[in-house]
Design a protein that fits this description.
- The complex is a heterotrimer of chains A (about 220), B (about 220) and C (about 280).
- Chain A is an all-alpha fold.
- Chain A contains eight helices and no strands.
- Chain A has a domain of about 140 residues: Orthogonal Bundle (MetI-like fold).
- In chain A, about 80% of the residues lie in helices and about 0% in strands.
- In chain A, helix 1 packs across helix 8.
- Chain A is flat and about 70 Å long.
- In chain B, helix 2 packs across helix 4 and helix 5 packs antiparallel against helix 6.
- Chain B is flat, with a radius of gyration of 21 Å.
- By secondary structure, chain C is an alpha/beta fold.
- Chain C has a domain of about 70 residues.
- Chain C contains nine helices and twelve strands.
- In chain C, helix 3 packs parallel to helix 5.
- The radius of gyration of chain C is 19 Å and the shape is globular.
- The relative contact order of chain C is 0.16.
- Classes of the chains: A mainly alpha (about 220), B mainly alpha (about 220), C alpha/beta (about 280).
- Chains in contact: A-B, A-C.
- Chains A and C meet through helix 5 and helix 6 of A and strand 8, helix 3 and helix 5 of C.
- Bound molecules: adenosine-5'-diphosphate and magnesium ion (MG).
- The site of adenosine-5'-diphosphate has 11 residues of chain C, from strand 2 and helix 1.
- The site of magnesium ion has 3 residues of chain C, from helix 1.
Chain lengths: ~220, ~220, ~280
């Protein structure tokens, strides 16, 4: 079957899968941002309990495989009485996993803000919360965007694993097409190209654009 | 609710530990491929040929931008379509090695580019050949800062080996899946697999961090 | 927060009262970093409206004096008073105890500081830097804060650069904005830590000119660390020379600079004058 015919025949499956992948990606990215911010800040807190909770979360998710986490959340968590939709398990797990990596980025970015900024804010008698919110976080945001761009690509790639708990994403649909047709090069090749286009021509340019916007806002152009 | 069965745990533990050996074998084999291939990718981007640099650069970008799982399927299933049959192990090691070679090439490149230009010029001034300059001057200086990054990717490869279960490599995840399907019990196998991963990757990551700080101190980067 | 347990706080007054209450008092203040004693039983009073300059060799503890007063560093023993009230401590059941965060915030509101490296907020304009404290800390409305800030930016000659980010300003301009930012909080005490040390020689006078103006225009108490002996002579009411965490010698500029009593003072001054 010529490649064009193949594409025409199976386009709807690829499109459906792509939409699910994009949904997984967007939601997982959101979860990762929230989890990274909370646990990154908690890891820098004065309270030992807060720090311990953050460290346990970070080390568990960074110390094991995303695939192990997915299976565990999908097969084992229901035994504890939490039964979640597989779609939800998918983006939650991917988000929590990469949120743990993001936590280190958050911490690094906050620590990259020069000490003098803390001191100047204190000299203006700003409260710790105000110092963080008004002075440190905006500057940390500029520092975190470049490494966060790489993390976004990892999140996009990570969503492919949700196919293994039967979420009908691009990876899943591609396998179905492959199993129906045995046209492996066409099926997997098409998916590779779709993932590549999203990573290279959507995620990366958007992150670059954000970097530029934030740099301009901070007056560093 | 939750009932953890201890006797079942003891029954499956040997099988899982054996599989952990396979996991480490896969990680080590994949890493060996990645270390060498990564150097090829890095050096290819430093040749004078613009075309070669461009092609390798794009290839590295492509590999880094697409899911490893998909690459594993691609390499395993596309071969037979053209009459080339790869065993699960061979396909797995190639896929994982290729994927991480792309990452390691960036680590190498970063290390090489961090060596000050003056070092090249000084080597030229005493008339060293390019190969000798790399071997005696550049790589010894580029390697130490790259080592920490290389170590992190070793842990990364280790944690990505469960994906090889999808093409039937009998590593930890694959074994846990089988145990689960045979006994209709998932709690113990999956939890034990998670714990084994923690038990290996946490100390390793800690050692790498220790090593990195020691190295930075030794190189006078921090006090 | 290490505090010498044996250190008896009962010998320190709960507050300073009477006719001649100093604006700032360091009473027997000691500061250590590990085994290094940076300041050893420092006693120093600064009267309201007084301009005191601290000079001394590098590492003698000058910056530490200002940072303790700004509460950027904790102290190991002694008490610091500001405007008659204890700063590092507070009264509880008729005794002095370590100040809590709320007390620090209350007393700290009387103090402003300018840093060697300006520490302007890079993500805010010159005006944004100056309204940040008044709006976020003092609770002024945007309009009130801007009025106040523009007046001060005008005072330091930076009103026309109000919408520029710090990265677009020269060092001298940044430092002038930093002075306006500190003044916008209406402090009673201003601290200047080597505010001209990071500047190119030709712009130093921009900043010294502003500080000179403050001596005339505001009834501010000022503590300044500087290496510019000539400037110190011109504007100081008193100069303190620090050596190894202690005040070696102090007095009016004429007394200290023209007629030093102490051999180490003479050596330091001749070395500095030679370098200038
Ligand atoms: N955070 C710190 N940790 C350890 N030692 C410090 C620290 N800050 C200052 N010091 C030491 O305290 C001494 C006085 O420092 P400083 O007040 O900055 O001196 P000056 O401003 O007179 O040059 C110096 O010996 C310095 O090395
Ligand atoms: Mg100093």
């Amino acid at each position: 079957m010529p490649y064009l015919d193949f594409l025409m025949t199976y386009s709807s499956r690829f499109i459906d899968g792509t939409l699910i992948t994009l949904g997984q990606f967007g939601l997982a990215a959101l979860v990762a941002i929230v989890a990274a911010l909370i646990s990154g800040l908690m890891k820098m807190a004065h309270s030992k309990t807060m720090r311990a909770i953050a460290i346990i979360y970070i080390e568990i998710f960074r110390g094991t495989s995303l695939l192990v986490q997915l299976y565990w959340f999908y097969f084992v968590l229901p035994l504890f009485g939490f039964t979640l939709e597989k779609f939800t398990v998918g983006f939650l797990t991917v988000g929590l996993c990469y949120g743990a990596y993001g936590a280190e980025l958050v911490r690094g970015a906050i620590q990259s803000v020069p000490r003098g900024q803390w001191e100047a804010a204190l000299a203006l008698n700003m409260s710790p919360a105000k110092r963080m919110q008004r002075i440190i976080l905006p500057q940390a945001l500029v520092a975190i965007l470049p490494p966060w761009g790489n993390l976004m690509i990892e999140i996009l790639k990570g969503t492919a694993l949700v196919a293994l708990i039967s979420v009908a994403d691009l990876m899943f649909e591609t396998r179905q097409v492959n199993n129906n047709t045995y046209l492996s090069a066409q099926a997997f090749g098409t998916a590779l190209i779709i993932y590549y286009i999203f990573a290279r021509f959507m995620v990366t340019p958007i992150m670059r654009w954000l970097e530029r916007v934030m740099a301009r806002k901070i007056g560093r152009t | 609710m939750l009932d953890w069965k201890m006797d079942f745990t003891w029954e499956i533990l040997p099988r899982l530990l054996l599989a952990a050996g396979n996991t480490m074998l896969a990680a080590g084999g994949g890493y060996a491929v990645a270390v060498v291939l990564g150097l090829v990718f890095a050096l290819a981007q430093r040749t004078r040929s613009r075309t070669l640099t461009f092609i390798v650069r794009e290839l590295v970008e492509f590999i880094r931008s697409t899911p490893l799982l998909l690459q594993i399927f691609f390499i395993f299933y596309v071969g037979p379509q053209f009459g080339l049959r790869l065993s699960p192990w061979a396909a797995g090691l190639i896929a994982i090695g290729l994927h991480y070679a792309a990452y390691l090439s960036e680590v190498y490149r970063g290390g090489i580019e961090n060596v000050p230009k003056g070092q090249w010029e000084a080597a030229r001034a005493i008339n060293l050949s390019t190969v000798t300059t790399y071997r005696r001057i550049i790589i010894p200086q580029a390697l130490p800062p790259a080592l920490a990054g290389m170590g992190n990717y070793l842990v990364g490869i280790f944690k990505d080996t469960p994906m090889l279960s999808v093409i039937g490599v009998a590593e930890l995840m694959h074994t846990a899946n089988s145990i689960g399907a045979e006994n209709f019990r998932y709690l113990e196998p999956y939890t034990i697999v998670g714990l084994i991963f923690l038990a290996i990757s946490l100390p390793t990551a800690w050692l790498i961090r220790r090593f990195e700080t020691a190295l930075r101190r030794k190189m006078g980067l921090t006090r | 927060m290490k505090h010498d347990k044996r250190h008896d706080l009962s010998q320190y007054p709960l507050r300073l009262e009477g006719d001649n209450v100093p604006m700032v008092r360091f009473q027997n203040v000691t500061k250590r970093y590990g085994s290094l004693t940076v300041l050893d039983g420092l006693n120093l009073d600064v009267a309201e409206g007084e301009m005191v300059t601290i000079i001394g060799p590098s590492g003698s503890g000058k910056t530490t004096v200002l940072r303790m007063l700004m509460t950027l560093e904790t102290i190991d023993s002694g008490v610091i008073y500001v405007d008659g009230e204890p700063l590092t401590h507070m009264e509880k059941n008729g005794r002095l105890v370590r100040a809590n965060a709320a007390h620090l915030r209350l007393i700290r509101s009387k103090i402003g500081m300018c840093f060697q490296h300006f520490n302007l907020f890079p993500h805010m304009t010159a005006l944004g830097n100056c309204i940040e404290g008044p709006m976020q800390v003092l609770g002024l409305s945007k309009q009130e804060a801007e009025e106040r800030a523009l007046e001060l930016l005008d005072l330091v000659g930076m009103a026309d650069k109000r919408d520029q980010h710090p990265s677009r300003l020269s060092g001298g301009q940044q430092q002038r904005v930093a002075i306006a930012r500190a003044l916008a909080m209406r402090p009673k005490v201003m601290l200047f830590d080597e505010v001209t040390s990071a500047l190119d020689p030709e712009v130093i006078s921009e900043v010294t000119g502003v500080i000179r103006g403050l001596v005339d225009q505001h009834n501010l108490t000022m503590l300044m660390v500087t290496h510019q002996i000539g400037f110190a002579r011109e504007i100081s009411d008193r100069i303190c020379l620090f050596f190894d965490g202690k005040i070696e010698e102090q007095g009016s500029p004429e007394m200290l600079l023209d007629n030093p009593q102490n051999e180490r003072t003479q050596q330091f001054l001749s070395a500095v004058l030679e370098a200038n």
